[in-house]
């Protein structure tokens, strides 16, 4: 029987992740925005940790047909970004271009768990689907609550609980 664990803040994520199936949760708002963008047909999203890295990567994409540049720092879209971090903004995007995405908490969490065997995105909008994948998983599972600036975020904990309940 696989083991299930929850990291209530990013700082509690173990160093070794290689054999874990990891679910990153940032309800307000990164993972909710990613789920909305994917639902709208965006082909893929590239989560990066910093605004600078996002801007550099977007410049590289310009040579290959372009991308959308999305995200926030301290709840505000950085200058020159196409979108902030509201799920509604991403429902309006063309499904032809990917999104390079950076946020204060969520993309930092995604980059922190990059060495996991598999990474899933968890939100209130896809909790049942995530649970359906996890319930058949032979791997140990780690739910990672991104939190807010190193503090526990109640909405992330609620989502982790919902995923567990759905399992």
* Chain-averaged pLDDT: 96
Largest beta sheet: what is the strand line-up?
A: 1-7-2-6
List the secondary-structure elements in sequence, H or E. EEHEHEHEHEHEH
Poorly predicted runs of 5 or more residues: none
Tell me what the CATH architecture is.
Alpha-Beta Complex
The 3D shape can be described as globular
**Gyration radius over CA:** 15 Å
Largest sheet: 4 strands, parallel
CATH topology descriptor? putative 2-phosphosulfolactate phosphatase
> What's the CATH class, please?
Alpha Beta
> What is the beta-strand fraction?
15-25%
Helical content (DSSP H or I, runs of 4+)? 25-40%
Total discrete domains: 1
What is the number of helical segments per DSSP (H or I, 4+ residues)? 6
Q: Quick one: CATH superfamily?
A: ComB-like
End-to-end separation: 13 Å
* Structure summary, number of beta strands: 7
């Amino acid at each position: 029987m696989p083991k299930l664990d929850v990291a209530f803040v990013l700082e509690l994520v173990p160093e070794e992740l290689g054999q874990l199936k990891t679910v990153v949760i940032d309800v307000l708002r990164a993972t909710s925005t990613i789920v909305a963008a994917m639902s709208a047909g965006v082909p893929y999203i590239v989560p990066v940790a910093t605004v600078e890295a996002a801007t550099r990567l977007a410049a590289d994409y310009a040579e290959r047909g372009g991308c959308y540049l999305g995200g926030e720092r301290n709840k505000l879209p950085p200058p020159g970004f196409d979108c902030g971090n509201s799920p509604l903004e991403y429902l309006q995007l063309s499904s032809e271009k990917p999104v390079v995405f950076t946020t204060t908490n969520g993309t930092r969490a995604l980059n922190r768990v990059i060495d996991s065997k598999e990474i899933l995105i968890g939100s209130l909008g896809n909790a049942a689907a995530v649970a359906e994948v996890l319930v058949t998983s032979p791997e140990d599972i780690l739910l990672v609550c991104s939190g807010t600036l190193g503090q526990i975020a109640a909405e992330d904990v609620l989502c982790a609980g919902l995923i567990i309940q759905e399992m």
